[in-house]
Amino acid sequence: MTTLSPSGFLRIGASDLEYRMIGPMPDAAPTIVMLHEGLGSAGLWGDFPDRLQAATGAGVFVYSRAGYGASSPVQLPRPLDYMHIEARETLPKLLETIGFRRGLLVGHSDGASIAAIYAGGVQDYRVRGVAMIAPHFIVEDISVASIAEIKKTYETTELKSKLARWHKDVDNAFYGWNAAWLDPKFRSWDICEYLAYIRVPVAILQGADDQYGTLRQVEIAEEECYCPVDVTIIPGAGHSPHREAPEATLHAISDFAGRILHTHEGSQGRAA
């Protein structure tokens, strides 16, 4: 186990990953590990992790995956199974390094998909629940259309300079995500099989006006999961409800976390 400073870098595999640790250390309290979106970073969560820590009393760990934020860049193009690689190879090493003992995964978009693959594929008894904000389980037409549109925006407007606030190597972050999703072979990407193997409670938060996914994603989780699934549809929010409707999002996640983390220590939250 590494002694964690409030912020810094962790060497995971061949990459240096930037992180923030807010609140109590993993050996002192449950830990909420936050997994960012396809264009996100530790910093782009804003003050949401701090507010989540204050609302739950848990420790909150946020980090930038390789290729994002101030973390090491990645070789492009990314492999089309990059989310599987993150969930099956990088995340286990990260949790081990920080001394993760018990807690939740909270993921947004790509991060939510990574959390689903981990929870269904690794069966880590330390993970007591998974909260997914705007998850993707399949590739929808609306996703591809919006991702194609943002590519045009990135190449013709000031979006690149705006993203430079959050990423050391903006092109590495943007094209690593964008090119994978726009690859024709990515249309067959599908992680529904993992949902049936999740054995802990799941919370799904979806903006009613999400431009990157429809409520079909929520329906898939309800159809495929055998575990309890709490669904919160947030009116007036798009793909990033934690930024567009922070109060409603914070309430839903902190309520879920409170119910899961304050149950008896021996409970695994397993569905019958």
UniProtKB/TrEMBL annotation:
Keywords: Hydrolase. Residues 32-250 form the AB hydrolase-1 domain. It holds the Pfam family Abhydrolase_6. GO terms for molecular function: hydrolase activity. The keyword Hydrolase applies. InterPro entries: AB_hydrolase_1, AB_hydrolase_fold. The keyword Hydrolase applies. This is Alpha/beta hydrolase. The lineage of its organism: Bacteria, Pseudomonadati, Pseudomonadota, Alphaproteobacteria, Hyphomicrobiales.
